[in-house]
Amino acid sequence: MATTSETARSLFPALEKFLGKRFSTAQAVRDHHGHDESWHAPCAPEAVCYPETTEEVVDIVRLCADHHTPIIPFGGGTSLEGHLLAVQGGISLDLTRMNKVLQINAEDMDARVQAGVTRKQLNHSLRDTGLFFPVDPGADATLGGMAATRASGTNAVRYGTMRENVLSLAVVLADGRVIRTSSRARKSSAGYDLTRLFVGSEGTLGVITEVTVKLYGQPEAIAAGVVSFADIASAVDAVILTIQSGIPVARIELLDELQLDAINRYSHLDLPVKPTLFLEFHGSKAGVEEQSQEFGAIAADHGGSDFLWKTGREEREQMWKARHDAYWSVLALRPGAKGFVTDVCVPVSRLAECIADTRKDLDGSSIIAPLVGHVGDGNFHLVYLINPDDKAELAEAQRLHQRLVERALAMDGTCTGEHGVGVGKRDYMVAEHGEAVETMRAIKTALDPLGIMNPGKILPDQA
């Protein structure tokens, strides 16, 4: 844990003066802001600020710049790669009080929100408009955090990730200047695409304070289904043919036997303990029925069985809640264990091979690691269940993780499809991006010459 530095301590009177009780050095508050949902060891900041406006963020950033003090933006605290760890000390900037829905433009199908608005809060605000925001990473994350980590989730196969759904951002730069990265226009050829630069920047280039996102019409009809297969390869092959056939599936999730068993126990379900697809179709009643029938034929051709369709809202919500509770169901398999969570993404044509080789590694290991994947876009996750205080277990999980990432990169994939880099994937950036890492470093230096914006994340240490 970082020791309170003289420079940071000199900031405290000024911060406390204009924030009052919204500034804290209490140990419990600091500890809460020094960890996320990852396995990485906690690392608390030296103080926590709770701004409520972009102007307050500007004042905090300028003070931190004057005192060369790191700033770590904090949203829902649900990230998975150590994004929130104060590895060089500094100030945690908790944006959860910046939680106003600023503008809903129903005719243009977009909304502008403060960074602390959560996805569920936005959708609640949209309930009378016939519109919804589709990006669903599982946790009720903040929109600012989702933009910062380029989040996606179960709906990405149809609606895309945050990269495709953010129209514009308001960002406070490292020197306190405020920029808007774009207008609300759906396309533009005017200048550099700054929106895409900051989406996925993980707080290393600036603090996102407002997000303008695309909205979509609520589908007339929704059908969800569950189908099991004899093996994972058959399930993945069914997914590939579904995508190649142009069937507009909204969600398509793969769970292996171990994950299915965990979900059955945790969510009190009784699904066959086999490799299983959870899927969902959106559209008109006729369109959804046609899509369901087309997928059903593909699944049957690949040995799919026990095909269950759920059209009632409560049934669908129960099914997807079980899917979203997958992480907690895994932890329940070994009470007291910590989840070493990771993800990779490969071209869909290599997905079955990547999973098969990964399963071979797991079969030869003592580590329990259920698998769940957003297979429509080639992304899957593992949760290695470990005691992080057991050096042998941690070393084995790290070995398996390294082999997984190297395998994905060898298949022209990526070390992370949606969790982000944080501190956990920094060591793989050069292997994935080569010389492009130095371009990233040049951008970081240009926008953050003092290195105060969430330091120690994304970019590997220089040799």
Give a structural overview:
The protein has 463 residues and is of the alpha+beta class. The chain folds into four domains: 91 residues, Uridine Diphospho-n-acetylenolpyruvylglucosamine Reductase, domain 2, CATH 3.30.43.10; 117 residues, Uridine Diphospho-n-acetylenolpyruvylglucosamine Reductase, domain 3 (2-Layer Sandwich), CATH 3.30.465; 107 residues, 2-Layer Sandwich (Alpha-Beta Plaits); 87 residues, Alpha-Beta Plaits, CATH 3.30.70.2740. It contains 17 helices and 18 strands. Helix 9 crosses helix 11 and helix 14 packs antiparallel against helix 15. The model has no long low-confidence stretch (mean pLDDT 93).
Q: What percentage of the residues does DSSP assign to strands (E)?
A: 15-25%
Q: Report on the biggest sheet.
A: 7 strands, antiparallel
Under CATH, the topology of the largest domain can be stated as Uridine Diphospho-n-acetylenolpyruvylglucosamine Reductase, domain 3
Point out poorly predicted stretches: none
Looking at the structure, what is the overall shape? globular
Radius of gyration, whole Å: 22 Å
Summed up, the helix count is 17
Given helix and strand content, the structural type is: alpha+beta
Query: What would CATH call the class of the largest domain?
Result: Alpha Beta
Number of domain modules: 4
Approximate helicity band: 25-40%
**CA-CA gap between termini:** 24 Å
How does CATH name the architecture of the largest domain? 2-Layer Sandwich
